[in-house]
Specification:
Structural class: alpha+beta
CATH topology: Aminopeptidase
CATH class: Alpha Beta
Strand order of the largest sheet: 1-2-3-4-5-6-8-7
Number of helices: 5
Number of domains: 1
Order of helices and strands: EEHHHEEEHEHEE
Helix content: 25-40%
Shape: globular
Largest sheet: 8 strands, mixed
Strand content: 25-35%
C-alpha cells in the first residue's frame, strides 16, 4: 500500500508522505503555477534534492500527502511547520499540484483536517500562515476556513518584475469550529 489513511475527510485523506512520490513532487515544484505561490519561483528542484527534502520532512513528522479518498490519487501536500509545543503554535503550508484539482475545495478540506488535528490532537492554540497578496484564491480559501489577516509585510517579495506584499494570517483554537 502506498498511502495510509491517517486523517480522513469526506473527499480526501491525509497520509504520511511517500518518498517514492519524489518525481511527482519534483514536477509540481518546478511548475511555475505551483511554486510561484510558495515563494520558490527562483529555485530549480532536482529529483535528488526532492528525495532528500521528502526524507527530512518524513522524519519531522507533521507533513502529509493529500490523497483523493475515492481513487487514492496524490493531489498535493500539507504540513505543520515550526511547531512550538511550549507556546502551542505552528505554521501551516499547503499546495495542490495539478491545475485540474484546484478550485474544487480540496485545499480547504485539507486545511480543515489539519486544523482539527493541530488543535485537538497536538493541542496547539495558534496556527499561522503566510500568503502572497496576489494569491486571491489562496486568501479566499484561508478566510473560508476561518483564518484572519493579522499583518502585512509590504513589498517584501519580488515576483514577475514587481514587488508584492506578504500577508500573515492566523486562527486560534478558541475560534476554530465556531463556523465550520
Amino acid at each position: 500500500m502506498k498511502y495510509f489513511k491517517k486523517i480522513v475527510g469526506e473527499r480526501i485523506y491525509l497520509s504520511p508522505i511517500n518518498i517514492d512520490d519524489a518525481e511527482i513532487y519534483t514536477k509540481w515544484l518546478n511548475d511555475y503555477e505551483v511554486c510561484a505561490n510558495l515563494g520558490m519561483y527562483r529555485q530549480m528542484i532536482s529529483l535528488e534534492a526532492e528525495k532528500k527534502i521528502l526524507e527530512r520532512l518524513n522524519s519531522d513528522g507533521q507533513v502529509y500527502a493529500i490523497v483523493l479518498l475515492e481513487s487514492d490519487v496524490l493531489i498535493g501536500n500539507i504540513g505543520l511547520h515550526e511547531i512550538d509545543h511550549m507556546s502551542r503554535r505552528a505554521d501551516v503550508g499547503l499546495f495542490i499540484g495539478e491545475a485540474e484539482n484546484r478550485g474544487k475545495g480540496y485545499g480547504a478540506e485539507a486545511l480543515r483536517l489539519m486544523l482539527e488535528y493541530g488543535f485537538n490532537t497536538l493541542n496547539l492554540h495558534n496556527i499561522m500562515l503566510y500568503v502572497h497578496a496576489d494569491n486571491e484564491a489562496g486568501i479566499a480559501c484561508y478566510k473560508k476556513v476561518g483564518f484572519r489577516e493579522i499583518g502585512r509585510r509590504r513589498e517584501s517579495k519580488f515576483k514577475d518584475g514587481r514587488y508584492i506584499d506578504v500577508i500573515s494570517m492566523d486562527i486560534l483554537s478558541t475560534e476554530w469550529g465556531k463556523d465550520q
